[in-house]
């Protein structure tokens, strides 16, 4: 067991691959660790950030014909992309998904899904054992109870996983505001999905574009 | 002091007028009673519901040149509509706003704004004294602390105000799912802004449109 | 507005009628104020207590062909009983339900349902205006958020409703442990649904039925 | 029992008198409803706002030789002002304090103190019975437990008291940002004591005083 | 419905009578609204304060032979006093208890018990209807859930009851620290049961009895 | 200290053995970390899942003649099975229990019990030292306070234990929905004990079995 | 970094030594992580348990002449015992304390104190570096905020410390209820300080000593 | 991975260097893990403590011309000191900051900033990989949500970082109250920023300087 640190351990867009697992109606119906609207919002924000930074994203569901299709807020980000449907609850035992991930050639595996303690925990733990660097995006995930969510986070930490939240992932991919091309796309994502910062940004732009007034309030 | 009850006390679209107050960057920057993204989400949902039911909506800000423009998530619902800018913190002391409300001829006044304890409380309390039936939408509002928000709710209740949350207002305007025309519009709002219900609805539609399978999971 | 007090204001089985509203899958899927299992448990406990005390119970749903059937944990308590299906969101605007309630000849109306802020609030407020004595069972109900649930409780209090929780309703119907026939039935309900008390009761019985030992721990 | 509403019910600086009660070390040592630093901060902010709006402020302690002197953060706002020391726990039974309040000729009595459930509740309830309009500033007060604080608020509401938080009182005294003289003083108070808004204000001023740049972030 | 305020509405030792209801093992085993040790501590503190101020205290249980004897921490305060055992869950329907209360000739009825929503709520509501002035001591009570406890408080407020916490009752009985005889007894109670204040008091006494040192820390 | 990860570290029914410890009345009477009904529910759900997957389950109590018998909700799952009674608080120092576990020949030891910090922590820590792979099911356990429960979890993590919640254990045993025989049994458990998912499943089945209607809501 | 597990890692009375640090008025006055009465109660319970099991206890304060004497609830457990007064905030840099601990010849060091993040954290971290096996009793400690307390726990875990709560320590020292002599003393401690369990025990004894009745409730 | 313990691991003023990162308006506008006023207060307290102990402090911002200047409560502590402005979000990729830190020749790196999960996490993780001993001051930091803040703390712990809160850092720098010169300065900081302790200290001084009275309260 070693500490996971150093500059190389930070997420880089060119080395990252995102896997979104089972953001489906059956699962969401019993998420009790988060406000469901925030789970949808955070996952959509994460998906758009991945797209903005050119991070390949794998979409997968479990028996979607019964448990329901992936949230449209996610599929709309990737029009036309195949969603890999499985019977395995543990995504990492499904060859199609793992092959799709491997095909990207990337080793920084970023995972979010429903539920944290089942559909996220199992592939995370298995992949760690196979040498992957795995980051779990906890606030784009959710569990059947607060305890289920938190205990799963502790279990995955003990397995060597890296824990983050969606806006931190996006900021780590950006890393330097001097990278202007992605900054614009990221700002758009923030405005839609991290409203506390998005509205502050719009205010900043409004005031910067206001000629200096004679006096202040 | 009388109980507020009876069928007539329920909100009706044709008698309602919505006033959205000071959903601006300066105010949002110090909202600590709610997740800011949820305040934006709930207010946008409320605005769209009002539009769907033909409820006139008054938009107002305080010194927007400094404190920032209304959230675009709100103004986009009402393209081209004037936002009344004030210097009065208490909206109800501003003649332009009150005249606009009176011009609608409606008496069920629905208010949301930032902050609950200032920009919502003052007009609510004044209007109640002038005989208006006032409903405050608490989750499309927000205060500088949980205590500020909750104490303001208790104050407004003691002033005779009616407390609701945004989805309850929308459902009360709908009242009967047999009113099909608004139901479709409302469902769209729910899908976007009340994701826990929206995703459940999409699942329902998917499954209803699935031919009966031979056997079940 | 008057205080609701006095011996006559307490619930009596012979004057009570219970209405259970919209305990359905679509609604439960977005309950975020309570652990869903507890809502089911509490509602089943309430239903069984009503049955034990001979309190007539009206069951109703809204468009069950789409939003799903009443929880089986409830319908199993009343085998063969009709569930009144409505299109009105506001149960009290549905003639069939109101007639069924009136047919019982009882005036202490006890209501629980999903969601607190919609399906419970509207009939409660309307019935209060028509002179009914209305008690809402808050922990056999649930809302889309903690705030939605709590604000609805405050609204219904301001409308004159009486707020209780399920075990308190059951105990108020019992009133005197000397009423032995119902006590046995109530104890069975408690053992199944109020486990903290049920297990304590079983322990009490075990120890009472233990011959006095020579010495103590 | 009547609703407290209408424009006249809002606080006005010229009709207000502030009484700060027992913000002393012995009391603060067992405040468990709030972070002590926030109680000090909020009370100092309230005191400075009163001073800025010319609201007379009465300072009082109970046996300060033993329980300790008023917080310096309060006394420094009113250099040289007498602090009335009492043996009565109930401030309103102390003639000196009541005479001092009456001498101001004002009828909007604003009270904050430690503890909410003792030193604030008793004078509030007594003064209400004598016809005063009493506002309690809950977040410049504090109790020995969260329950003690909240139950006292409910008790005082049932006695007819008006509940507010410190920043809401200050904003209500301001009422209109066009009143420029007090606005500057209030802004200074906000910068020191309502940092979330104060920092936002400083940012606003910085950006307003920045010439329009060529392009935006 | 009238506001309960004015000096006469404050509790006085000579007009108060305390009724402690069902602080028994069976009830405590399913208290989930408070830490059980705090319920015992607060009730013992309340009992001792009553004794210190000469407030007569009625002790009662429901079927103690099965549900267990009153906590010894309470009975030890009143050695030899009869505990009235009932079968009625609603204490106020038991003639022995009501007669004992009436025999004291006092009209300020102070009640605490387990559970808040059953054993406290019923007698409180009935007694209010018969003209008693009833104060409920919420933190010397407890319910089967936080919601059960809080909803019961709201119900009793709507019935006209006065809500307080134990230390506030004790301080209101004291009213003036110049009443030295009770002050000593109250201080002893605080030292044992309100440790945050008790320890602060002991410190105060230690330092006051320390000769002035040459310099400070 | 090594990370616990890899496919082999996931729970398998054929390698698991479940030990349920001290789910007794004396212990439950002072559980304050969870709602008691949920502890009973979760433990019963876990027990039924174990049975469904053929996982041998050891039942044990400590001095049941005094502290009470195992909850009937557990013993009813295993009719006629012996419950091993101990005097050792630490189950792992009781030869009978350890021998029973060893007799199963399984090495994935799954433990739940009351209290987390005593009856679960001690055998977990001892067994880990003897080379067992130990998983603690935290939500089928409970402690005397939230802090006691959480600190014990942290202690057991530092000892090398794996933390999970009951539904995650069941899902990990299932692993693949293509294993149809257990899926049916698991679904029955979920319907009874994980109502948020159970009700969603029943809805899914209802809608799948509904012929495609002409139009949608 | 190694896992701390195995039977030998459990606490044994004959190998334990308890150090209680700075349970003084100055420190308690700013404890905001716990109810102060519970901190006093838990520390007294821990002290009495140590005494019951013959665990030597070192008492120490920092500048007691100014910051106040140790709580009498602790010193009363050890009449006449010296309290070592220090100027070092870090107890482990004080030779007198460390020598006293070493003189006991025991290696299982159990520490509790105020504040967790200062007076507990420093000696814990230093002693761990010197090879001691250190257990921190978190609920007999307390910090200036919930975050301060919890972050300190995480820091000490990262330093190798073992985290427990007071009742778990007592139960681990007992280990087997067959050790009757200490069991009686421990039961007395539980009755006084772990009331939820103490009252349950008294009930158990009452019922066991009740002759079997003819019938049950 | 090794435990971080031993006397040498405690913070020493002469080996510490403090880096304050991005305490700016844009960041504060979306801090939702803490009360913003407390973040400002704690950071100012930490800055003053560093100054009192001669700990060099590096101040840095990201694009201050847009996101706003450092809080004046911080810059006022270091009049005239340069604030290093960056475009890198990750401070540790900015040569100017790292060179400034290295120039101090100190190896105990203490970091606080906004947001915990972005501007604190990245430099902490990178610096740890380069061999620095890094302490994060969590309550002088803040994140966009409670989960973002807490998950970042868990991530940094897994990277080997040391977690503390501001007052603990100050006390660890002090270490011994016999160091009188810094004690006075630290006391001044506590009085301003840790009011619960500051007010207690002032009381202590008042009482110590009071001649012993004839009798006590």
TrEMBL record, chains A, B, C, D, E, F, G, H:
Pfam families, per this entry?
Answer: Isochorismatase
Q: Which domain of life is it from?
A: Bacteria
In this chain the Isochorismatase-like domain maps to 16-166
State the protein's name.
Isochorismatase-like domain-containing protein
């Amino acid at each position: 067991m070693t500490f996971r640190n150093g500059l190389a351990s930070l997420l880089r867009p060119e080395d990252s691959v995102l896997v979104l697992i089972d953001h489906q109606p059956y699962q969401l119906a019993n998420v009790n660790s988060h406000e469901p609207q925030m789970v949808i919002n955070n996952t959509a924000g994460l998906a758009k950030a991945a797209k903005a930074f050119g991070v390949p994203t794998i979409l997968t569901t479990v028996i979607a014909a019964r448990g329901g299709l992936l949230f449209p807020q996610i599929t709309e980000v990737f029009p036309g992309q195949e969603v890999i449907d499985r019977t395995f609850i543990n995504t990492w035992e499904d060859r199609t998904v793992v092959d799709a991930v491997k095909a990207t050639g990337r080793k920084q595996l970023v995972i979010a899904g429903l539920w944290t303690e089942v559909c996220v925990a199992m592939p995370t733990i298995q992949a760690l054992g196979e040498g992957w660097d795995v980051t779990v995006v906890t606030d784009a995930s959710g569990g059947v109870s607060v305890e289920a969510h938190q205990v799963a986070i502790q279990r995955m930490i003990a397995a060597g996983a890296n824990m983050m939240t969606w806006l931190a992932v996006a900021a780590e991919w950006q890393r330097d505001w001097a990278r202007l091309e992605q900054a614009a796309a990221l700002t758009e994502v923030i405005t839609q999905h991290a409203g506390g910062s998005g509205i502050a940004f719009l205010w900043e732009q409004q005031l910067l574009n206001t000629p200096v007034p004679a006096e202040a309030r």
